[in-house]
Amino acid sequence: MRLETINLTDIKIEDRFWSKHIHLVKDVILPYQWDIMNDKVPGAESSRCLENFKIAAGRRQGEFYGAVFQDTDIAKWMEAVGYSLSSGRNQELEALADGVVDLLAEAQQPDGYMDTYFIIREPDKKWKDLCEGHELYTAGHMMEAAVAYYNATGKRKFLDCVLKLGDLICETFGPGEGQNHGYPGHQEVEIGLIKLYEATGNRKYLDMAKYFLDIRGLGENYFLKEQKSPDYLHIFPEFEDYDPRYSQSHKPVREQDTAEGHAVRAVYMYCAMADVASAYGDEAMLEACRRLWENITEKRMYITGGIGSSGILERFTTDYDLPNDYNYSETCASIGMALFSLRMANITRESKYADVVELELYNNILAGVALDGKRFFYVNPLEVIPGNCIPRTSREHVKEQRQKWFGVACCPPNIARTLASLGQYIYGTDKDQIYMHLFISGQTCFRMGNSTVSLEVESELPWRGEVSTSLTGVPESGICINFRIPAYARDYTICSGGRQIPYENCRGYASVRVTEDTKLQIRFSIEPVFVRADVKVSSDVGKVAVMRGPLVYCLEEKDNGNNLAALFADTEKGLWEEPSDEFGGIIAVRFQGKKMVSSSRHLYETYEPQYETREIRAIPYAYWNNRGVGEMAVWVKAIIK
pTM for the complete prediction? Predict the structure, then answer.
């Protein structure tokens, strides 16, 4: 039976590491993004998503602006608002959001349709361009936003709007005569429909999500057929010579065994597959999820958790093809991978899935936003040389510093909704079982039968492997608490009253049965280590990276001078830690090495290189580019002796 996540209203996070990022959402990110969407930030890319809704609602005259999925900017912002309000009501923010709901309701068509691109620009093309039109993708984000806002506030207006939209989709699509037999070009509505089912209990939304998965990749490819229609609207030039693998429609979903195509589309679909597999007891679907997750994590994922190697089509490529300086590793893709892994952790109760959730959150996702909350990375490279990332080259998608906004701005509001909903990643429950996936300080309560069990956690992660827990309200019948044993943890122990107690290792979780109010301490060692890639990863042969607990580290020019590629690590002399006040307090890592120098006068010539001894400093990858523009590298060459 799948573990249930905890309602965000029942979780209060007070964590030395994470609280500053969560508070940033409420205090800075949401207000900043509101200004962006109202075009009030000088020098930033325009959004005008709210302007589009005003035009669709008849409040203004004008033309549609932006990408076909521009509506999702405000949808993800509203979802983030909902999650933020779950942890504490904010009258000013709620009033802004209520105004948005009124606007969305005005723009919605009488039949429930809600998509400003097609309302304003192409009213006769609705549902006729599923490949490129993103109507279902946009609808899915609206559904997720409405459920989050309803759960936080209890207000139904937004939810009722998207239920009407969901009803329209259920009427429009399906196997019946006269229905549209297509499926989303960009997966997301499946997740939204499942959220509607969870919020209402109406199974038709769950069945609709399953239908979209079941029909995908069957028979003649729907998108190739759709493109032959005279009503088809070509929006994206790159969709010429369309390859169904791009949208994971090349074969039925239960038969897929490698992660293909657009990385965000893929992991959003895998999330829905996991949900449907759990809801219907579909073992074939679940087995496909296992295969796809293994393919990604063992052969197609960066050490930082980034996925999607190619800047062209933002896609997976082939096994072990993981270039560092022109990869894509979109922030949204890592968010999707974290959501997929969380679902798999809750379904299988295997800790390896939660390990990847943690990896994504602490590294590739957190790197997507600056510490001031006002600049963002869409692409997350593992190596940058400023000046090399120039337009119309293989690195044009890579930025040497975070941007104020993007013309395609899916990542910034996605980061906001992820940080605001961090609580959903921490725990899973089932009857008398509590699973702690992540060690994050705070308080929460669990309803178990007729009892309410409270749990208080004080965690020193990611800097030290020390976690204290206090359980109160434990029923006489007892409960079982399961603490994740991280793959990087050494000397893992659980103590009670100063004494070490035994535990059962259940698929990577330390399981302890308690029958009374209890205080438990988890301890394990976290040490910095050199990590090597599989030799089949050609970009990293002969190189090492540094990890400490869940954190991947990187070198920056600020600490080590320029030409980081000339540095070599002496892996035999170990690593040592350096506490620092930077970034609100971190542990940096240092190690011995050498730097190759040359006195050559020509681009190529015969010479014997000289080496200078260097002490090399590394900081957490998530915090790079917060001290100005400069070179960055995750992988460094190792001295061969």
Answer: 0.97
